[in-house]
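The protein record now logged underneath.
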Amino acid sequence: MQFIAWHREREEVGMGAADDCKDLASIANYLGFAPQHIFYLVEEPERCYVSIEIPKNSDPSKLRKLDIPISELKGVQRAINKKILSEFSIDECVHSYIAARSILTAAREFCPGRAVLKVDIENFFPSITFKRVLGLFRSMGFTGQASFILARLTTFGDRLAQSAPTSPSISNLIMRGIDLRLKKLAATWELSYLRYSDDMFFHKEKNFNHPKLASYIMKIIKDGGFAVNEGKTRYHPKGLPRTTLGLLTHGEKPKIPGSQRHIYRSMFFKASRNIHWAHENRDRLRGIAEWYKCVYGRDDTYIQYRAILNNEARLRIHASYQSQ
């Protein structure tokens, strides 16, 4: 049934990549690379990644492993994203890794203060194995040889790599069947369904019997080859204060939590007093300012943040002239 769905989409968009990609040479030609370049990446994938560990956002005392592809492989993966994976649509219930959708568009769905059940998939990307990615490409109509090559180019250590450009799109495509089943389940309960990466949400204007629903959800996820992180399952009753996807969603509009806004203010105050610190942290400060603008628009606080950033840039240029 999954193959039929892919085939119908390919008919709608015209000739698909599977029609042009039969072996290594044709894949290389379709993606715009030399065959020997693709051959090297397929034959020696263990040399194509650099592994690092960074603190987890949820718990800085724990580390998250990131497998980062080298530039040669990253370029091929971006081409796979653009020329192959983008052929297939993702349902509107998915807000992760899709243009014009984001954490903010997802959080808006929960306002003002709807009842929300959140369910989290455990080890989401690592649960998507080489075999599953191989099956995905086969279901899209690629030959066995082409599917093997594409799966080798998009996995590392028999798993999706956390930092590969193709991993988000592949995860969304792998989840299509599960999303459809969960969306249908939500409809039978008169609920709306939404997913952001490994976080799934069921929400409604009124409170609902979440323990019974959670048992059905877990079965569907298990049948789909994933496991639920039961320790992160949360039910938020209607109207009560809560943080969802890092934003407060019990009001009319999503807001950044007060503790986070306080950290932002402290950082920009420090940046206004210490030009060297501002210079060292300018990329992080810019990211904070742009995120703040996404949530609140160009209000007085954002204008102040931009003024501090602009001042840092001017002083940095002035300092470079003085040193000459």
